[in-house]
Amino acid sequence: MKESQIDNWIQKRNNRRKNINAEDLTTQILTGDIAALATGITLLESTTLSDKVIARKLVDLCLPHAGKSVRLGITGVPGVGKSTFIESFGLYLLSQGKKLAVLAIDPSSAKSGGSILGDKTRMNELSIAENVFIRPSPAGDSLGGVARKTREAILLCEAAGYDFIVIETVGVGQSETAVHSMVDFFLLLMLSGAGDELQGIKRGIMEMADALVITKADGENVRKANQARQEYQNALHLFPPNKNGWIPKVLTCSAYLNNSMDLIFKLIEKYELHTKENQSFHQRRQEQDKFWMHETLKELILSDFFENKTQQKAIQELEQKVTRGEMTSFDAAEKLYSDYKQKLK
Amino acid sequence: MKESQIDNWIQKRNNRRKNINAEDLTTQILTGDIAALATGITLLESTTLSDKVIARKLVDLCLPHAGKSVRLGITGVPGVGKSTFIESFGLYLLSQGKKLAVLAIDPSSAKSGGSILGDKTRMNELSIAENVFIRPSPAGDSLGGVARKTREAILLCEAAGYDFIVIETVGVGQSETAVHSMVDFFLLLMLSGAGDELQGIKRGIMEMADALVITKADGENVRKANQARQEYQNALHLFPPNKNGWIPKVLTCSAYLNNSMDLIFKLIEKYELHTKENQSFHQRRQEQDKFWMHETLKELILSDFFENKTQQKAIQELEQKVTRGEMTSFDAAEKLYSDYKQKLK
After folding, report:
1. Secondary structure element (H or E) that encloses residue B218, with its range
2. CB B235 to CB A234 under 8 A?
3. What is the pTM of this model?
4. Is B25 helix (H, G, I), strand (E, B) or coil?
5. Rounded Cα–Cα distance for residues B229 and B237 (Å)
């Protein structure tokens, strides 16, 4: 694209956004209008106050129409083949008559666009298919901010009739935990063979997964992948079960063999059935709603304290005293807090 | 003990506490005086303001003499044989010339005394041995409160010359995570055979452990225990390694065979050597110090908000709206927060 074209495009978009109101946009989103959905999500990500007001209203209006999807979290270290997997699995879902939205969480991405933009160009077929909506990660933000925007984007996508929402994360920082707390089914992609590739996976993540999928199980890799599958399946049996009674499954997959996609889809369907039968599907969502309410509230309260520059300096100083063994952690915390309260008076 | 005896004992203890000052008590603790150590820890647990002032000073005075121990966390579901294990392992440590303190964390215990009091009477030999100090869990408190008291008790025990501190937890609520954040080595006791007993272990705990020990590996159980050991060891290899490079080990043990205790002791020694060589031993402690400073600070800040009765009612109401899908988690959090700020003005 030439500079002039980009300017033109931005101008057009701004014009469109100037004339929007939440009610009209909701109506358009409810008809499944992709452009309206994109505009809606852009509003969610905007830092302009007037946009925020519309965005809030938009979410409120869409909320009663949301919730009717399967939310699928996908994570795995770089190199595991996430975009190839999402491309294949996404195309399979479309072939089953599903409407698919792909969102991403990547708080590490400071640049506009985020990581999935690169992925999107790699998801050649999927990105131009009908009934699919791909959206890069809202960028340059705190995890809390990104999580909020993603959670709200899920609601808009659901209102627009997408019945399968994939949330992808690159697995940096705490983003897997955040994604796990906003999806119905959490899928961990892995390479076959336990070794260096495990270094990239944080401890505790495997125990969160509802399924492990060993990727690149084709050609010479098939034997190794099958062996890994068996080993992981045995291992997972030794670990405490989910409280919803689901025992995580391990599958192998090749992005080239549609057979794998079929099995993964059936597994997720089975999970949906299982958890809807024992009520845990709805329960998990309710717990997630409560979790995010409390998380957000805590963040708001704590930000008053922690975002203050003077406070930050004081924290650093006491942190050093504590790690040098000159003061206990508790005395340091109490001093910081009482100094703060003193200042408020 | 008769009632009159108990009264007499309490009277004596109170008299002793009336005449104490932090300096004298520190001097006594530094000589290894067990009665002084017990009095010190009682002061830590006291809710009286005057006691708190002395306790704070006491901790400050002991701090420079603390830190020279190995802190060992032990957890496992009820029935796994924790007290039998601690009795055997403790006696073994004593035979190696170590001085041992056993502390407990059990925030679920609402009664005075806590769970280990029962354990203590079951630790027949250990509780009357020399060079050992056993202390029940400070009771009827929040996890944060219990954690603080335990962390401070560790410092006093170290100042008194105990070179092995065992922190036991019954594994209720978040107590394993708390214990994991205050020890150098975290040991999970398990029963052989993967089945119902796994139900009691929370997901994520196994990935925290530095070692698994399969208990009751004697008599007919030996074969099953060895098989479980092999399976768990294989499983742990499939999981991401510790960032300190330590691969968790699995051992079997019989409380009747001292051989097991020898192996567990050697394993902990090996871990100590490994982590001291690569600096991660000290680093882990520094991170723990920082963690507790931040945790305590957050707790103090949040308690202003959450302990308010009006606030609690408002939270509950919005929680219901959120779980009924009438409001997003984020809107609810923002409303709670802005209402609160409004009231402060």
Report:
1. none
2. yes
3. 0.81
4. helix
5. 12
- Looking at the complex, does the CB of residue A72 fall below 8 Å from at least one CB of chain B? no
Q: Tens digits of per-residue pLDDT, B285-311?
A: 999 999 999 999 999 999 888 888 888
Contact: A301, B330; criterion CB under 8 Å: no
Choosing among A203, A303, A326, A345, which should be mutated to test the B contact, i.e. which has the most B CBs within 10 A? A203
Q: Does B6 touch chain A (CB under 8 A)?
A: no
ipTM over 0.90: no
Mean pLDDT of chain B: 85
CB contact under 8 A, B289 and A323: yes
**Interface check B67 vs A, CB under 8 A:** yes
* Identical topology for domains B1-65 and B66-277: no
Superfamily of domain B66-277: P-loop containing nucleotide triphosphate hydrolases (3.40.50.300)
User: Which of A:82-141 have CB within 8 Å of B?
Assistant: none
Scanning B210-249 for CB atoms below 8 A from A yields 231-232, 234-235, 237-242
Burial of B137 (0-12, 13-18, 19+ CB in 10 A): buried
Of residues A63, A152, A325, nearest to B325 (C-beta): A63
Nearest residue to B123 via CA among B74, B191, B194, B162: B74
Cβ–Cβ under 8 Å, residues B173 and A209: no
Chain B residues with beta carbon closer than 8 angstroms to that of A242: 203
Give bridge partners of residue B104 from the DSSP assignment.
Answer: B168
How far apart are alpha carbons B294 and A129 in whole angstroms?
Answer: 48
Segment A269-281 shows an average pLDDT of 95
Q: Name the closest residue on chain B to residue A327, using Cα atoms.
A: B60
CA torsion A316-A317-A319-A323 (nearest 10°) is 140
**What is residue B331's predicted lDDT score, i.e. its pLDDT?**
92
Instruction: Show residues of chain A in contact with B329, CB under 8 Å.
Output: 151, 289-293, 296
- Which CATH class for the A1-65 domain? mainly alpha
Domain ranges of chain A: 1-65, 67-278, 308-344
Q: Which residues of A touch B286 (CB under 8 A)?
A: 323
Contact A144, A296 (CB under 8 A): yes
What is A67-278's CATH number, 3.90.190.20, 3.40.50.2000, 3.30.70.100, 3.40.50.300?
3.40.50.300
Strand-pair partners of B169: B105
